[in-house]
Amino acid sequence: MSILKNVPILGKLLEIGYAMLVVVVLSALVGLILAFPVMWLWNFVFGNLHKISVFQAWALNVLAGILFGQRNSNK
């Protein structure tokens, strides 16, 4: 790894890669934590029909974000 840090551009790319990895992992953890209230609410409301897991609630959060997310328009 010390060879990569001696080359300036490769060292910079390595730092950017680490930062991107940290952002992706933290985003996934926060999304997973925020999926628990969705799972609990869904299972409370529709528990007799169909219970969902935390990963299904996570997917439901992502889908709702895509469908109802904030749209920016510069008109």
How would you sum up this structure, described in words?
There is one protein chain. The protein is an all-alpha fold and 75 residues long. It has helices at residues 2-6, 8-46, 54-68. The protein starts with a helix and ends in a 7-residue tail after the last helix. The relative contact order is 0.09. The model has no long low-confidence stretch (mean pLDDT 87).
Percentage of residues in helical conformation: over 70%
Could you spell the SSE succession in H and E letters? Answer: HHH
Q: From the helix content, strand content and strand pairing, which structural class follows?
A: mainly alpha
Largest sheet: none
Rg from alpha-carbon coordinates: 20 Å
Quantity of strands, as a count: 0
Which strand-content bin applies to the residues?
A: under 5%
What sort of overall outline do the alpha carbons produce when their principal axes are compared?
elongated
Low-confidence segments, given as residue ranges, are none
End-to-end separation in angstroms reads: 49 Å
DSSP helical segment count: 3
**Average pLDDT reading:** 87
